[in-house]
Amino acid sequence: MKIHEYQARILFEQKKIPVPRGKLCTTSSEVRTAAQELEKPVVIKSQILVAGRGKAGGIRLARTPSEAEEIAKKLIGSVIKGIKVNSVLVVESVEPKQELYLGFTIDRGARKFVLIASSQGGMDLEELALTQPDKIFRREIEPLIGLHDFEARLAADSIGLGGRTATDFSSICKKIFAIFCEVEADLAESNPLAVTYDGSLVALDSRITLDDNALFRHPEYRNESEDMSPLEREASQRGLAFVQLDGDIGIIGNGAGLVMATLDVVSHYGGRPANFLDMGGGSSSDVVFNAVSLALKQTNLKALFVNVLGGITRCDDVARGLVQALKGSQTKVPVIVRMVGNNEEEGRKILADAGVATLDSMEDAAKLAVQKAYT
Amino acid sequence: MKIHEYQARILFEQKKIPVPRGKLCTTSSEVRTAAQELEKPVVIKSQILVAGRGKAGGIRLARTPSEAEEIAKKLIGSVIKGIKVNSVLVVESVEPKQELYLGFTIDRGARKFVLIASSQGGMDLEELALTQPDKIFRREIEPLIGLHDFEARLAADSIGLGGRTATDFSSICKKIFAIFCEVEADLAESNPLAVTYDGSLVALDSRITLDDNALFRHPEYRNESEDMSPLEREASQRGLAFVQLDGDIGIIGNGAGLVMATLDVVSHYGGRPANFLDMGGGSSSDVVFNAVSLALKQTNLKALFVNVLGGITRCDDVARGLVQALKGSQTKVPVIVRMVGNNEEEGRKILADAGVATLDSMEDAAKLAVQKAYT
Amino acid sequence: MTILVGNDTKVLVQGATGREGRLHTAAMLRYGTKILAGVTPGRGGEIIENTVPVFNTVKQAVEKFPQLNSSIIFVPAPFASDAVYESIDSGLKLIVVITEHVPIHDSIRFTNYAYSKGVTIIGPNCPGIISPGLSKIGIMPGHIFSKGQVGMVSRSGTLTYEIAWILTRAGYGQSTAVGIGGDPIIGKDLLEIVEMFAEDGGTNSIVVIGEIGGDAEERLAGKIKHGNFKKPVVAFIAGRKAPPGKRMGHAGAIISMGTGTAASKIEAFKSAGVPVAELPSQIPELLQREFEEKKKENGP
Amino acid sequence: MTILVGNDTKVLVQGATGREGRLHTAAMLRYGTKILAGVTPGRGGEIIENTVPVFNTVKQAVEKFPQLNSSIIFVPAPFASDAVYESIDSGLKLIVVITEHVPIHDSIRFTNYAYSKGVTIIGPNCPGIISPGLSKIGIMPGHIFSKGQVGMVSRSGTLTYEIAWILTRAGYGQSTAVGIGGDPIIGKDLLEIVEMFAEDGGTNSIVVIGEIGGDAEERLAGKIKHGNFKKPVVAFIAGRKAPPGKRMGHAGAIISMGTGTAASKIEAFKSAGVPVAELPSQIPELLQREFEEKKKENGP
Predict the structure, then answer these.
(1) Fewer Cβ in 10 A, N or C end of chain A?
(2) Residue A254: which residues within 8 A CB-CB, separation 6 or more?
(3) Does residue D217 belong to the interface with chain A, where contact is any CB pair within 8 Å?
(4) Does domain D140-298 have CATH number 3.40.50.2300?
(5) What is the pLDDT along chain B (375 residues), one digit of tens a residue?
(6) What number of C-beta contacts closer than 8 Å exist between A and C?
(7) ipTM of the predicted structure?
(8) Are residues B144 and B191 in the same domain?
(9) pTM of the full predicted structure?
(10) Rounded to an integer, what distance in angstroms lies between the CA atom of residue A233 and that of residue A286?
(11) With a CB-CB cutoff of 8 Å, which residues 140-159 of chain C face chain A?
(12) Residue D141 is nearest to which of B130, B184, B312, comparing CB atoms?
């Protein structure tokens, strides 16, 4: 789960990592005051959890307090990439002599933390990896041991820093790693980390992604993610894994891999999936009811394909939940059900009684769903 | 370095380890007020850093506030085992159903932390180990990994606790380990850790010994140790390792092992060492001056034996410092010097010029020191 | 022969008295798994399913049943990590972590610790291991699998059952099926399990079920390309149509920073000579074709 | 032959530009130690003693001089631990930590880490290692030692020099002398060094210099008692007259909780058949006696 730049900035400040002076504002008059107090040109940064907010116009420079107020009036309340801007961070504009990259993330294959540093900051890590791979210093950090001081020094040295800048870089490196561990992040980075003309360092941007599974230990960050459509939010509240797609055939299944495969098979036969909806491995009739009801809220559906492999899940439970949801929604969308496994006979009977036919094979069912949707 | 019970108690309280209600007091009227507020019989505990303060009368029970005040009048300002009582901890008296032991220390041989727990608390660990070895649960904790929850549960289970008491014990166990690591202790224990009649746990005493070498990371505990004679304190301030003994031949050397061996050799020939004084491996003339001056402050000296093996240390430096100190003190105590090694000739000459003879062999010199002291 | 789980497998159930623990203890016992003991702190002395004694600590269970060698963990995510350490500490050499939602900073630590102690971790967030007809340490429906010589390894759960069912109906029984789990950090990964199958005398071919996210498939393909694998390998990759930046159910199934796409994995397999099925139903025929290919390559 | 340090020893000095680092770099060079490089962060590019290049990181030093295999650490206590990890990380296999006052929570961690990586740590707070006539990684005065076949291991510094001097004058040269340090937590302990001497073809007898505190002497004695040591061993224990509860200079030299007394150590050695000298000067004659004893025991 991403947290806002201003939240990551608070963590940076608590560790005394230098950041530009600034303030979080929710009204344009606050922005004006903040700009006045800073007595410098300011950068106004929309606090939204989407990638590429800069290119989308969410980050703006203002030379005067009144310019800042004008910009804030336009930004606050506007919608950028589908997300409403509720607050902006107003910070002094800092002219960097050089922009560095410094971050920690997780290397899945190696099962290690990894420290990444580069003398070419500013662009995102992905772009950096593509365009300047030889400018990236990468070092695996032992999860059971943690970051050693010498590793931080090695990073500074490897990206060509010396003197006080190297010492400061090592210090910031250790602090970001401490944050990374304390909040149990997937990613914690400063990018760009600016070298100013006097050789000091300032973290111009701070980005942290938390591990959703660890939020129970960090309740202060719960319910933060706004980078979701209303349906995705509802699904998340109901404990369903739901991703909205741009097609028109709704897809429900039990198990992430099976649902992904169902999407693939439907696409293979020319269908356009409207969503990914995983009910989970051991689905009860309540869960099925919630899932089907949610899927049917998608207004553009041309068909709904429910694909259940009842290993632990009982097919009769699935059937009951499905019938109840269909009754509740009174939908006209054709519903195609593929259902095999535990208590299959009983499940099929319940569905047949409600006028829903079932198929044996995922592929046959996918073909049928495409046919019903587009003809 | 030992810290006071009340200081350890603060650490316990910060981690929400249950301790008896109570207050640190420095006057008898404060003690009376504290006892009144507690509305119970109280225990008055002298805050001095000596072992066996209980047996020496430093811990007293008072049934009423006025009795508490009377006791405090006697305790505060009194001297117990050579240490002045400046403050007392006044706590509610808790009647334990059972007294447990729980502590963490370091196993030198295994190079591990070690968790120790016992169903037979109250007596100290040494006595416990001698009298009830089978009642001790002992588990090595990996220093690189730390204490696992299951290890704390294992301790509780192994000393016969169950139900809520076991859960609470595990929780206190984890908290004491956290303190042990945070302050970098050699020892952190609660003894006795009382089980009350309602099955809850209260840490009736808390004892922590810090690692002197780690104090630079814990400046709040610096200059705490009062378990020293004035000369020991002066030595400590001058960076000398000094231990007062009960004999009359002063011993100075360079290197802890050599000084210990010198003590042993002097004793072997019938001498009674007055002190242990290690100037360290690479002694300059300043250090020698300080050491000799300090040793000569011992009023009961019958001889002073300076034993220097000049490996890195230069004998001429030693000689200069020694001559200067002897001049300064104008002592009449016979001074015997054994000196070999670097710049030996020059050193001997300096001493000879000042009327001090030197010997080659530690054993010959020890014999001479004993002879000069007692004849 | 099989890998990881077989006749000698003696299982401890951690979190045995919870709902999931009880349900699957019963299911495993029915399947024939030798479950000797359960552990739930504070519940020592109970008996579940009439036969399985419950202990407070793994130490007690192992003292009572020294032949225990494997553990399956159902304890809730906040405590799963501790349960793993407890089993490692008591000398169990195979630990299957069923628990979902284990924090990644926990799993990255306990997987490293397990490796340093020579302990095999499967999972977390996985269906477990089944050697059909012999034993299972997992939550998969046993009746879908059948005894045979195909080694299966998969990052998913129900998709594994789907493909096992297809294989079973096509007459391809399985030696062992291993569900390694859908989290970003897991114990044994695709490559390590495939290497075990490569060495296993009871396995004549391998079906790999991958999905988007990470580079486990690419690493496996690289090893196959430059290694000396004699057995037919067929792959399936779920998530061809998944959009980048979205987690597709599994925490690990996410295309991020341009890596982990199905296209990249399919390309890697193809370049290593491993056919990738476009539909699950194609897997048996691809296996058949590979058997014939390998027969030609390896000689009579 | 020698242990730990010999002709192939190629040394890195960490903390090379400090006062102690410089002083002992010069002394070691004079003694013949092959010092190839030094490290001090931020001082890369300097040259000390006209021959030793200084680098910012151990990695750079090792890249430049891949034949480096040992390190000696003079960096101040707050940074000593990090210096140890840095050397381990760069593959150096012998690390001598001269630094005094290293926090015990640091040394307990880095000694465990070194063990897990197969790295030998000597110290902290130790004089180091000398193989007379060949090389030294340490701060001991070289001229006191002489080449021969007595293996020396000691928890102290100057007392080692005292006894080496006695041995030298009595005609007993030394194969290697190892000062393992006086801290409660150290790398190799008495027993481990004695075991190395037992295996060393260039060592025909062993002098153990112990002191009060801990149970390293008792453990060594126990091993000798129940083991099969063919070489004469003679011991000296400092601190017979030390009072309990007082730290005698060394952090590790303290009788606490009734353990670590000289009496206990002397008793343990005697019960293992190891003679303990009451005075340092007795060591040569005890050695001589042991040679004769062992000759009888081991046969001609």
Answers:
(1) C
(2) A278, A279, A280, A281, A283, A307, A308, A309, A310, A313, A318, C158
(3) no
(4) no
(5) 889 999 999 999 999 999 999 999 999 999 999 999 999 999 999 999 887 788 889 999 999 999 999 999 999 999 998 888 999 999 999 999 999 999 999 999 999 999 999 999 887 777 887 888 888 999 999 999 999 999 999 999 999 999 999 999 999 999 999 999 999 999 999 999 999 999 999 999 999 999 999 999 999 887 656 667 788 888 888 889 999 999 999 999 999 999 999 999 999 999 999 999 999 866 688 999 999 999 999 989 999 999 998 777 788 989 999 999 998 888 889 999 999 887 888 999 999 998 888 999 999 999 999 999 998
(6) 178
(7) 0.91
(8) yes
(9) 0.92
(10) 18
(11) 140-141, 144, 154-159
(12) B312
